[in-house]
Amino acid sequence: MTEERYLEQLDHRLQAYPPAFRKKMTAYIGTYFKEGALQGRTAEEIIERLGTVDDVMDNVSMLYHEPVQEQREKHSFFSFTILQCILVCDTIMLQEVRYGCSV
């Protein structure tokens, strides 16, 4: 799979989430591809380290316990999306530490 296809699939799977969150998540994951390429890694190697789009979405889903519509009513949109992005990113970084790999 290519970087572009991976990010397209991720963006598609994030359609139910707030647009700002979706943009931040795809940008964050995109940095893994850029940094990995600078280190000489292929897209396949980077995806292997990141996990599948399903793996990333499992992490996102764990953080969203209620339907997105209900959450928007309960939380400030800006602070909510920033917090969620940080938590998902921290989860990904913890997996890197746990498995001894980095992108």
Task: Produce the secondary structure layout.
Blueprint: H1 3-13, H2 19-38, H3 43-50, H4 53-63, H5 68-74, H6 77-99
Strand content: under 5%
Structural class: mainly alpha
* Count of alpha and pi helical runs: 6
Uncertain stretches of 5 or more adjacent residues: 69-80
Number of domains: 1
How many beta-strand segments?
Answer: 0
Short description:
The protein has helices at residues 3-13, 19-38, 43-50, 53-63, 68-74, 77-99. By secondary structure, the chain is an all-alpha fold.
List keywords for this structure.
0% strand, globular, mainly alpha
Tell me about this structure.
Helix content is 78%, strand content 0%. It is globular. The longest helix has 23 residues, at 77-99. It has one domain (3-99). It is an all-alpha fold and 103 residues long. Helix 1 runs parallel beside helix 4, helix 2 packs across helix 3 (43-50) and helix 2 packs parallel to helix 6 (77-99).
